[in-house]
């Protein structure tokens, strides 16, 4: 089963790049694309009152699988809107879903763009104090966008009250960082290709962790990893992308001008990619995910290559079923094994198999298997969650069957 989450900006019809997060689980198939995501997100966010313009989160199932989202619960979604341009809005959207008996916060962010020395050949540091302040303000706002996005994710994780379940996080977006100089007089200034592909790539990669700068200190470069480490969410960026995701362009030939001889090219997964000479090649599109949840397993990131602007970033994750949750299909597993969870009391429960069960005397359950005296079906003592003793026995039995 393969699926996806449109976790990227969809405000522009012509813009189809961005991160996509996908799931692969036995009982859940989700599929999301930029086209359907745009229409579905418009409806969903408007009806929920969480419309953030150019940022959306969409998830849906292709099969009859329980995907929970409580639209009436104010703690199911959060929005942060920071700024707007002529074509799109910046900010974050986060929503909490129940998937396969697990709680997952899925979020999308579109960060503020802007960097010192943005235009190739421009003076950096700028002698014009106003230009320098404007660029530094944008860098500072980008840091704030990331911190605010992380903040609303943290709020939703702390608002999880479903059986005290732990919450996983999947967070994608166009965070808009730029490759910059990390030391010297030009610290914080945008880097541009020189025509030496390997050397240029090494320079860009050296600044990949830089998110932006603080307005109070132009030399205070803020790192993604430092901001993430300031929370207890244990988030890390999905690895696997060697080449930048932005800004893609057509291949130029040297005789089109001296500047075109400096066009950056990068080789990944058997093909060459080309970037606009006028922009600083950067990893603007990223996906972060929980790294400490054993039930959430994410592979390396992949890209859907585009010939212009942004590449799309794809991540596939496995959400393992919570076999103690009735809504995740655990009753089906118990029935398939011909077993019953039988209890004498709320604390005294055991998983009994067919040979140990009694035959029902109820005319409406003729010849059906039931718990023997003095046991009763666990639902007499437990409303939703399978008792721990039965869950452990069930998992052990299923693990044995999987091996065979």
Keywords, separated by commas or semicolons:
alpha+beta; 404 residues; five-stranded mixed β-sheet; seven-stranded mixed β-sheet; disordered N terminus; 6 helices
Set down the secondary structure blueprint.
Layout: E1 5-6, E2 18-23, H1 34-48, E3 67-68, E4 77-84, E5 89-99, E6 102-110, H2 129-158, E7 167-174, H3 197-206, E8 210-214, E9 217-223, H4 224-229, E10 235-237, E11 265-268, E12 271-274, E13 285-290, E14 296-298, E15 302-304, E16 312-319, H5 330-336, E17 340-343, E18 349-352, E19 358-359, E20 369-370, E21 376-377, H6 388-403
Parallel strand pairs: 2-16, 6-7
Antiparallel strand pairs: 1-2, 3-5, 4-5, 5-6, 7-13, 8-9, 10-13, 11-12, 14-16, 15-16, 17-18, 17-21, 19-20
What can you see in these coordinates?
The structure is a single chain. By secondary structure, the chain is α+β, with helices and mostly antiparallel strands. Helix content is 21%, strand content 25%. The strands form 6 sheets. Strands 3, 4, 5, 6, 7, 10 and 13 form a 7-stranded mixed beta sheet that branches. β4 and β5 form a beta hairpin. The longest helix has 30 residues. It is elongated. The relative contact order is 0.13. The N terminus is likely disordered.
Number of helices: 6
Cα Rg: 26 Å
Q: What is the H-and-E element order? A: EEHEEEEHEHEEHEEEEEEEHEEEEEH
Please state the overall shape, judged from the principal axes of the Cα atoms.
elongated
In terms of DSSP E residues, the strand content is 25-35%
**Average residue pLDDT:** 81
End-to-end CA span: 22 Å
Percentage of residues assigned to helices: 10-25%
Given helix and strand content, the structural type is alpha+beta
Count of strand segments: 21
| Contiguous uncertain segments of 5+ residues | 1-18, 23-53
Largest sheet report: 7 strands, mixed
């Amino acid at each position: 089963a393969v699926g996806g989450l449109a976790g990227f900006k969809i405000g522009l019809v012509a813009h189809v790049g961005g991160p996509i997060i996908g799931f692969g689980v036995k009982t859940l198939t989700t599929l999301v694309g930029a086209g359907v995501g745009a229409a579905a997100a418009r409806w969903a966010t408007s009806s929920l009152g969480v419309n953030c313009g150019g940022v959306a989160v969409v998830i849906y199932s292709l099969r009859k699988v329980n995907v929970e989202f409580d639209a009436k619960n104010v703690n199911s979604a959060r929005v942060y809107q920071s700024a707007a341009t002529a074509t799109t809005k910046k900010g974050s959207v986060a929503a909490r879903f129940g998937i396969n008996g697990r709680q997952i916060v899925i979020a999308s962010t579109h960060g503020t763009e802007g960097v010192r020395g943005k235009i190739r050949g421009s003076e950096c540091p700028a002698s014009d104090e106003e230009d320098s302040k404007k660029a530094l303000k944008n860098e500072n706002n980008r840091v704030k966008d990331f911190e605010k996005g992380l903040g609303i994710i943290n709020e939703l994780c702390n608002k999880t009250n479903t059986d005290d379940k732990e919450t996983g996080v999947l967070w994608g977006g166009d965070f808009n960082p730029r490759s910059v100089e990390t030391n010297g007089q030009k610290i914080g200034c945008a880097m541009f290709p020189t025509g030496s592909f390997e050397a240029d790539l090494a320079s860009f990669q050296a600044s990949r962790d830089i998110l932006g700068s603080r307005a109070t200190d132009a030399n205070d470069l803020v790192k993604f990893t430092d901001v993430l480490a300031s929370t207890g969410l244990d988030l890390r960026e999905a690895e696997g992308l060697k080449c930048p995701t932005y800004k893609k362009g057509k291949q130029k030939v040297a005789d089109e001008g001296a500047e075109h001889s400096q066009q950056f090219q990068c080789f990944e997964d058997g093909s060459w990619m080309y970037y606009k000479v006028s922009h600083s090649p950067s990893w603007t599109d990223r996906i972060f995910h929980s790294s400490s949840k054993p039930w959430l397993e994410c592979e390396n990131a992949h890209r859907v290559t585009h010939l212009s602007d942004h590449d799309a970033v794809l991540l596939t994750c496995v959400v393992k079923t919570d076999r103690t949750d009735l809504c995740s299909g655990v009753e089906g597993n118990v029935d398939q094994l011909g077993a019953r969870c039988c209890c004498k009391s709320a604390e005294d429960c055991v998983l009994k198999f067919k040979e140990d069960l009694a035959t029902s005397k109820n005319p409406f359950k003729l010849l059906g298997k039931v718990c023997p005296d003095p046991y009763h079906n666990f639902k007499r003592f437990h409303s939703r969650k399978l008792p721990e003793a039965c869950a452990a026995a069930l998992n052990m039995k299923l693990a044995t069957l999987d091996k065979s």
